[in-house]
Specification:
- The protein is an alpha+beta fold and 212 residues long.
- The chain is built from 7 helices and 9 strands.
- The longest helix is centred in the N-terminal third of the chain and has 12 residues.
- The chain is globular, with a radius of gyration of 16 Å.
């Protein structure tokens, strides 16, 4: 059994405050804060120290950095298609390695890659690395089209274990505790992005991996 994030290191997005930037007019409510919350767990699980200069929870602080005018300008220059599509910087995967790492760690620590198999991620976890990704799930109020979480363990049957900031996907998130939830291969293919046409399951996925 491998647990790269201890139970007291699991973060929930549900207790986050609303984060607002007066200059950009962007508001991030708790239910939209999964990526910054997952990033805190990714940093901690990979034993990466990061700085914080405001009196905010760790994940709320990362959210604040990602919705500033500077962040919007960076995202507009580097991810123009996603900005045009209406994604705020905090919801753009590439911002976490190319922008956020430099602010809070001092240099880039991750790459966002595609084409990761279940075994690729299991091998990384077995070697002591957490991998951040996102997926699509069903919630109590309907589909959740995009949601971030961290692969952070392996159970005795070699199933991946995830730390999910919203809760347990197996219960449609009725259970709000998302620490080390099993994600066997069939669930990995069905939920982890990218999915195929009309949400069809695929075998190769994307993820934030440590730069070597």
């Amino acid at each position: 059994m491998i647990h790269l994030i201890p139970r007291d290191g699991w973060y929930t997005q549900r207790n986050n405050p609303f984060i607002y930037d007066a200059e950009t007019k962007i508001t991030v409510p708790p239910w939209a804060a999964c990526m910054p919350t997952a990033r805190v767990m990714w940093y901690n699980g990979n034993q990466i120290s990061f700085s914080k200069s405001l009196n905010l929870p760790d994940d709320a602080y990362l959210t604040k950095l990602l919705i500033t005018k500077r962040a919007v300008e960076f995202a507009t220059e580097n991810y123009p298609d996603l900005i045009k599509a209406g994604y705020p910087p905090n919801q753009i995967h590439g911002m976490y390695g190319t922008y956020l790492d430099g602010l809070v760690v001092g240099h880039r620590k991750s790459d966002f890659v595609q084409g990761l198999s279940y075994q690729d991620i299991a091998n990384r976890v077995d070697a002591g690395e957490c991998v951040m990704t996102s997926g699509a799930f069903m919630g109590v109020k309907g589909p959740i089209d995009g949601h971030a979480y961290v692969f952070a363990g392996l159970d005795d049957d070699s199933n991946l274990l995830i730390c999910d900031p919203y809760g347990d996907y197996r219960t449609n998130y009725v259970n709000q505790t998302g620490w080390m939830i099993p994600m066997p291969p069939i669930a990995f293919e069905a939920h982890t992005k990218p999915l195929g046409p009309k949400g069809e399951a695929t075998k190769l996925k994307w993820g934030h991996v440590l730069l070597k």
